[in-house]
What does this fold into?
Amino acid sequence: MRNRIESSVFRSRASRGLCALVASAGLVATAVPAAAADPLAPAPDSLAQGMADFGSSGLAPRVEHGDIDPFYETEGLEAEAPGGVLRTLQAPYAPVFTGLDFSVPDTAEKIVYSTTDMHGNAIPVSGYVVEPTVPWNGAGERPTVVIGRGTIGQGDQCAPSRNWPLDNQPDPLQSGRKVALEGLYDWVFASAGVRVVVTDYVGMGTPGIHTYMNRAEQAHAMLDAARATRNLVGERGGQFGKVAFYGHSQGGGASASAAESASEYAPDLDVAGSYSSAPPADLNAVQRHIDGSELTGAIGFTINGLVDRYPDLDADLAANLSPDGYAALDELSTMCTDEISENYGGHTTSEWTESGQKLDELLDEIPAGKAAMEEQRLGARVPQAPAMIVSGPHDPTVDYQQAKDLAGQWCG
It folds into this structure.
């Protein structure tokens, strides 16, 4: 365990904000986040032909399910106040575009930090920090953006800090873990002198189940990633500036959750704003939208996380799931997104129940299930800093209307 700083006394501040929020295809034609459309990015064909130029080291084999990395073992780590830094490690950080990466270092700092689960218990979460090598030329101290990745999986091997661009891992075109392309976000922000911190979310990397789309826990993981980074900066004599939240898909939900919860859970943070692309604000609507798509398996991620946090739900599901359903949920708990698309894409959750009902219909009939799903809904709280929602009416995965509804609730 590293020598840990004492938990800092957080300074409360009055949160002020303006809802500058957009939820229409007028901003983007699809739900692809703006960073992914950077004009410097080569065309897909040239990416496929020039992996070395794209930044793949290819020196290390792809991390697989069951691979053990002592950095993520948390037994014996002492609990800290939210945002306390429990462990750090310098890790190789691959260039994104050879010759253009003057703004990012050749190492990133992996972190294990303290957050709280939905019941208020202290738990460890991992992630990584990228400190730009170019100055911040805007007002105030260098700002920090906390990034939540899109749906990457439920197995520990899927964690952002265990994949490209860290640890000499093969790039997403070689590994097949295409969601890791969101590592491009790091480069975009670092090029502007913005510090980047990426969370692995609760239970991905560190022991325990990843509580996929748990509203409170994804908010806490994002907010405490900012606090942990502030602690690191302060420990090293630096000054910490404003914070923003950014994410697409699952990350859009995490960004929106953090924006909603910041004034209550982390009033000590100076939040500049948030960007939430295709946020799953209403899991019922999202499940109906993706059931039968290439992301059917993500519904299993949700169920696995709910059962872990709502034990009363287990018995109700036991009476209704088929043997195939149990096998699917067990297998999905160890998979990354590329694997669920290959193994469960095009299937429906009606194959997992004894009655042939889809899981959204079944959960709606189970009081504990209905209540658990409702607790994950976004929109009951309003961000106190500027917020932007981006969604597209033709998004094949995250339902557009529920994102638009969230915009209405925030600005209503």
Summary: The first helix runs from residue 44 to 49.
